[in-house]
Fold this protein.
Amino acid sequence: MKQFAIQKSLIILTILLINIYQIQCVQQEQSKWAVCVINIICYFNIQIQNTIF
């Protein structure tokens, strides 16, 4: 159950953070979108590793 709660909270956190990043990316040039996506992926990899370990 604890594992499920962690996964659920990570999903909610992921959705919130992607929304924040999207707002920032839209305000910038469209050409920077790919960089924003890479930053999101890298950020979540770090966050998930920090949560699990």
